[in-house]
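User: structure tokens for this one?
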Amino acid sequence: MFSLALKNPAFLAASLGTLISASLALGQAPAGPRASTDSQEPPSSTPPQTMELNITSVPPLGADRKIYVDQDCAILPDLNHALNPNQKMELKYDPVICHVEGAANSEHREEKAIGAELDRSRVDVREQEFVLENITMKPVVFNVLIRVGKGWVVDSDPQPKEMHGDIAVFEAHASAGEIVHLHVGVRHTKDLKPKPLPSPTAP
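Assistant:
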């Protein structure tokens, strides 16, 4: 029978057709892309709804949990950004975290008798009060950086924690959710021409 099948093309074709039909019946279809039988819904033309959240900005905190702000209440990434004036950065402000109240400039004269002369000077004072709020859930230390111009000196209590060149660094500790106030003042003294004191009247 086997030799007859090889010599009979019609029988060979019929046998191959029978084998292919049997394979299809057993689910062994030839390899190729299969159409998915899962039902697919057409894509919706309506965009998905989104939820908008308004969250108060949280300042950057290092391992020492310090918040750095400058004299204009700009929030700084770290101390190096304040000490390097050539470093470009995008300043961020948040009046909840830091704002200034009671900024004032004043001028007065100071006089002191030295020997037969009256030593005089004109004093310019600049003062401002920083209102600092800790919006985090843990204690933080505010570092307020004030640039002290040439000829000016710090004239406030407390004194700065440290000086970096002409940058005075003030510290203010705040517990979670606490609001603290920091008063900072600087003064500039200009010497005036002394005046001679009147001679004492002889008895």
